[in-house]
Amino acid sequence: MYSAAFIFKPGTYDDEFHRLNALIDAAAKATQGYLGAETWKSGDGAVFNATYYWETLEALKSFSRNPHHLEAKKQYSRWYDGYHIVISEVIRSYGDETIPHFTPNDRKS
């Protein structure tokens, strides 16, 4: 399993942003191997993190080639005051099972 964390400082969103964002969200969900996403923001609300989970690296790469995603990447500076991407391989997921999550949860022994 892989994750792609999109860490960003929001800027000013316009109608074109909302249009592309909806298309990108639909494209991610329609990509074979998409598992889910979660978002977080820093305590001061200045930085956000949208993390997407994929069954395989090829699934993530397939999404990254989506035309709407590529279009938005070209225009990112219109809507964001900065960004950073972290691609990771998820090697383990665990907890006490009180918080549902779409990553596999290793069973407690």
What does this structure look like?
- The structure is a single chain.
- With 109 residues, this protein is of the alpha+beta class.
- It has a single domain (2-89), classed as 2-Layer Sandwich (Alpha-Beta Plaits).
- Helix content is 29%, strand content 31%.
- It has three helices and four strands.
- It has helices at 15-30, 57-64, 67-74, and strands at 2-10, 34-41, 48-54, 80-89.
- It has a four-stranded antiparallel sheet.
- Helix 1 runs antiparallel to helix 3 (67-74).
- The relative contact order is 0.28.
Secondary structure blueprint with pairings:
Elements: E1 2-10, H1 15-30, E2 34-41, E3 48-54, H2 57-64, H3 67-74, E4 80-89
Antiparallel strand pairs: 1-3, 1-4, 2-3
